[in-house]
Amino acid sequence: MKKVILNVEGMTCSACSNGLEKFLSKQEGIVSASVNLVMATALIEYDEKLTIKDLNRFVKEAGFKSLGEHKERKSNRNASFITLILFSILGIILMYISMGQMFNLPIPNILNMMQNPKIYAISLMLLSLLFIFYGLDIIKNGFKNIIHKIPNMDSLVGVGVVVNFVYSLWNTLQVFMGNTNLVHHLYFESSAIIILFVKIGRFIDRKNKDKAVDTIKNLVTITPKKGTILKDEKDLEVNINEIQKGDIVVSKPGEKIAVDGIIIKGKTHTDESFITGESKPVSKKIGDKVIAGSVNYDGHIKYKAERIGKDSSISNIVTMVVEATNTKAPIARVADKISGYFGPIIFIIALIAFIVNLVLIKNINDAILALVSVLVVACPCALGLATPLAMVVAIGNCSKNGILVKSSEILETTNKIDTIVFDKTGTLTTGKMTIVDGVYSKENLKLLKSLEKNSNHPLAKSICNDEKDIFNVEEFKEEPGLGVKGKINGTQYFAGNYKYVEKMQVKNELKAEEEKFISKGESIVYLFNQKETLLIIGLADTIKKDTIKTINELKKLDKKIFMLTGDNDKTAKIIAKQVGIENIISNVSPKQKLDKIKELNINNNCAMVGDGINDSPSLKTATIGISVENGTDISADSSDVILLNENMSNILKLFKIGKSTIKIIKQNLFWALFYNICMIPLATGIFTISLNPMIASLAMTLSSLTVVLNSLRLLKK
């Protein structure tokens, strides 16, 4: 099974995106499709039989244009703005000619409707034709979507503009045939101004939507275009795509890191704020990882290229964020369902308004205006933007703060969470422990470090640090919840907690030391062979930044807080007391953690916060899995949310953004529906107060703008 994100051109409202999504989902070989209106992308999962060319063809058959696989596109906003200004000036001239006499404004005699009705009519028609050509993309797309049975915003506008223009053209012919009274029933300016307002609205929408996706776009441009590699003992500057895995890359102070890698010489501080949200420089030494796009502050370093191109951290993050914006939350599906029926219903209402006005009022002019006004004022642009724009803004805001959300559904689900379960080591604590107690020899400590060097567990990393003088380990194996084992010089050794010692049933003469270290809240690690314990050490950990404050704030939100750890009871209680957690479950294996999460999920909506290593099963099972990851490794498939820094307040920020997002979406949906409920009856012309097409187009534009601006409030959350 393959997955791809395509850039799509030609979508203007939710009816477009919904129609394309339904069309793609029906095609043989496509497993699923999710289309994002704001990002103008389609996330497609398909089988091996299909190619990108096939997918492009499907998009074209649906009435849109595929621009190929997702990548940053150059903006032509400046050219669009200049064109918009020119047509705005033409619009003012057109309105002056058509309506100037109503306000006793000076009009040249040649353009006076009473004195020269034919020249007046031709002038309006020619100026309006310019606007018709300007909005030809709207009209063509609108009728094309009617043909494809997925009427959208462009369909409503296109039909309205064409009907209005054709009717005015017919009256113009009557004027030339001598019926000069019909010069008062020319509505060319309405067609022109409708197109102008739609173009203005779209320009403003696009400009504001771009603010929503700027964070995502900026990620693409973070990495430098060139880098310096060491070749034949000389520095050689090359394009970034020429750097290969294994190359030695050189970085000087002030330069950006070219690719992901591991430092082999030198030390420095790097700015990783673009990926973690933390502005504090990160200390880097030999053996540490560096991330492409981070800034090398003060050191001259050499590092070995590890992950390049699509495999790099930043590339993975961009893909993850874009995929998240293409997923749909349950609340979005409600809006999509409404939008799917909206177009056909509006066409029916517009037709009824036309017939009613024609039969009751017996005025073809009023009937035509009512038809056009209903079509224009009811354009579902605001409804289509209500959910996806808010989600894009929220996901972009999360990523800016070092919170990677894999699906927009997660933001909605956060509002249901009532229970939060925390792992201890590497989650509530930094996991960067130091040896503070122990009974050991230098030789045995070297054996322990040799074993632990092969493990990714936080305790193992703390024991090893940057140790180089170690033994070669054969037949290494992790024992989840217990420790590790392996052969050194033909002898089998084990390293782990007291449960591992008990399981292997070896002689333990260090039991008394174990009790002493545990009473001080230290984590215990043994080294032993198949006969007896050889070493015991006690490690002390530190609480992560803002952990205590975050726990207290979560309690204020009526969240039930648990600590779930494999560590001993005494250590767990000491840490729990420090951070303010009353519910403690200790001495549990990964399997027991999983069982506890399943139990809690029966009557609760449970979020699990873990380090993504031993906690994978629990993270997958929880309603929401939140993984605390190192910024250089974001491949936590088991979790729904990845925190890229150690600031625990981001968990609180996630819940707050989720709450604000749903609130904003509900406001958007209310406004979009309320607007249509109020405006459509007025547009029918049945009531005393009615809307002409120009006012209707302005109202439609303002409605969309209201939704856009309301969604952008999430940038400040």
Produce a short descriptive summary.
The chain is of the alpha+beta class and 717 residues long.
Question: How far apart lie the N and C ends?
Answer: 38 Å
**Arrangement of strands in the largest sheet:** 14-26-25-24-15-22-23
Total domains = 4
Largest sheet: 7 strands, mixed
**What oligomeric state is this?**
single chain
- Could you say which overall geometry the principal axes of the C-alpha atoms support? elongated
Portion of residues within helices: 40-55%
Total count of helical runs of at least 4 residues: 25
Q: Can you give the mean pLDDT?
A: 82
Bin the strand percentage: 15-25%
Low-pLDDT segments: none
CA radius of gyration is 33 Å
Class from helix and strand fractions: alpha+beta
Overview of the molecule:
This protein is α+β, with helices and mostly antiparallel strands and about 725 residues long. The chain has four domains: about 70 residues, Alpha-Beta Plaits (2-Layer Sandwich); about 260 residues, no CATH class; about 90 residues, Calcium-transporting ATPase, cytoplasmic transduction domain A (Distorted Sandwich); about 110 residues, Calcium-transporting ATPase, cytoplasmic domain N. The protein has 25 helices and 26 strands. The strands form five sheets. A seven-stranded mixed β-sheet has the order 14-26-25-24-15-22-23, sandwiched between helices. The longest helix has about 35 residues. The chain is elongated, with a radius of gyration of 33 Å.
Helix-strand blueprint:
Elements: E1 2-9, H1 14-26, E2 30-36, E3 41-46, H2 52-61, E4 65-69, H3 77-99, H4 117-134, H5 136-147, H6 153-176, H7 188-220, E5 226-231, E6 234-239, E7 248-251, E8 260-265, E9 268-271, H8 273-276, E10 282-284, E11 289-290, E12 295-296, E13 301-307, H9 313-326, H10 330-361, H11 364-377, H12 381-386, H13 388-400, E14 403-405, H14 408-413, E15 419-422, H15 424-428, E16 434-439, H16 442-452, H17 458-464, E17 474-479, E18 483-488, E19 491-496, H18 498-504, H19 511-519, E20 523-528, E21 533-540, H20 547-556, E22 560-564, H21 569-579, E23 583-585, H22 590-603, E24 606-610, H23 616-621, E25 624-628, E26 641-643, H24 649-683, H25 693-712
Parallel strand pairs: 15-22, 15-24, 22-23, 24-25, 25-26
Antiparallel strand pairs: 1-3, 1-4, 2-3, 5-6, 5-7, 7-13, 8-11, 8-13, 9-10, 9-12, 14-26, 16-21, 17-18, 18-19, 19-20, 20-21
Helix pairs in contact: 1-10, 3-4, 3-7, 4-6, 4-7, 5-6, 6-7, 6-11, 7-9, 7-13, 7-25, 10-11, 11-24, 11-25, 13-24, 16-17, 24-25
